[in-house]
Amino acid sequence: ESPQFEGLRVTRIEPGSAGAGTGLRPGDILLSYNRHKINSVEQLHLVADLKDRRIVLRIKRGNAALYIVIQ
Known about the structure:
Layout: E1 8-9, E2 29-33, E3 36-37, H1 41-48, E4 55-61, E5 64-70
Antiparallel strand pairs: 1-2, 2-3, 2-4, 4-5
Protein backbone atom coordinates (compact mmCIF):
# COMPACT_ATOMS: atom_id res chain seq x y z
CA GLU A 1 0.00 0.00 0.00
CA SER A 2 1.46 3.36 -1.00
CA PRO A 3 1.35 6.31 1.42
CA GLN A 4 -1.23 9.00 0.71
CA PHE A 5 0.36 12.17 -0.64
CA GLU A 6 -1.05 15.56 0.21
CA GLY A 7 -0.27 18.90 -1.32
CA LEU A 8 1.27 20.07 -4.56
CA ARG A 9 4.98 20.11 -5.39
CA VAL A 10 6.38 23.37 -6.76
CA THR A 11 8.27 22.58 -9.95
CA ARG A 12 9.18 26.13 -10.98
CA ILE A 13 8.42 29.76 -10.17
CA GLU A 14 7.53 31.89 -13.18
CA PRO A 15 8.75 35.52 -13.11
CA GLY A 16 5.79 37.84 -12.55
CA SER A 17 3.59 35.01 -11.21
CA ALA A 18 1.78 34.95 -7.88
CA GLY A 19 4.59 32.78 -6.48
CA ALA A 20 7.41 35.10 -7.55
CA GLY A 21 8.93 37.01 -4.64
CA THR A 22 7.17 34.93 -1.97
CA GLY A 23 10.13 32.81 -0.90
CA LEU A 24 8.73 29.66 -2.50
CA ARG A 25 11.34 27.38 -4.05
CA PRO A 26 11.16 24.55 -6.56
CA GLY A 27 10.73 21.33 -4.58
CA ASP A 28 8.56 22.93 -1.88
CA ILE A 29 5.26 21.16 -1.26
CA LEU A 30 2.22 23.42 -0.83
CA LEU A 31 0.09 21.90 1.92
CA SER A 32 -2.53 24.55 2.71
CA TYR A 33 -3.58 28.18 2.43
CA ASN A 34 -5.45 29.94 5.24
CA ARG A 35 -5.99 26.48 6.81
CA HIS A 36 -7.57 25.00 3.65
CA LYS A 37 -5.79 21.96 2.22
CA ILE A 38 -4.35 22.22 -1.26
CA ASN A 39 -4.84 19.00 -3.21
CA SER A 40 -5.35 20.23 -6.76
CA VAL A 41 -4.06 22.73 -9.27
CA GLU A 42 -7.56 24.26 -9.36
CA GLN A 43 -7.27 25.14 -5.66
CA LEU A 44 -3.90 26.74 -6.35
CA HIS A 45 -5.50 28.94 -9.04
CA LEU A 46 -8.08 30.06 -6.46
CA VAL A 47 -5.25 31.11 -4.14
CA ALA A 48 -3.60 33.08 -6.95
CA ASP A 49 -6.89 34.97 -7.48
CA LEU A 50 -6.90 36.21 -3.84
CA LYS A 51 -4.53 39.08 -4.66
CA ASP A 52 -6.13 41.63 -2.32
CA ARG A 53 -6.19 39.35 0.74
CA ARG A 54 -3.58 38.12 3.18
CA ILE A 55 -2.70 34.50 2.47
CA VAL A 56 -0.85 32.18 4.82
CA LEU A 57 0.70 29.24 2.98
CA ARG A 58 1.83 26.17 4.88
CA ILE A 59 4.57 24.39 3.00
CA LYS A 60 6.87 21.44 3.47
CA ARG A 61 10.54 22.02 2.62
CA GLY A 62 12.64 18.95 3.19
CA ASN A 63 11.71 17.71 6.67
CA ALA A 64 10.48 21.10 7.89
CA ALA A 65 7.01 22.62 7.81
CA LEU A 66 7.10 26.38 7.18
CA TYR A 67 4.63 29.22 6.86
CA ILE A 68 4.85 31.93 4.20
CA VAL A 69 2.67 35.02 4.51
CA ILE A 70 1.69 36.80 1.30
CA GLN A 71 0.12 40.23 1.66
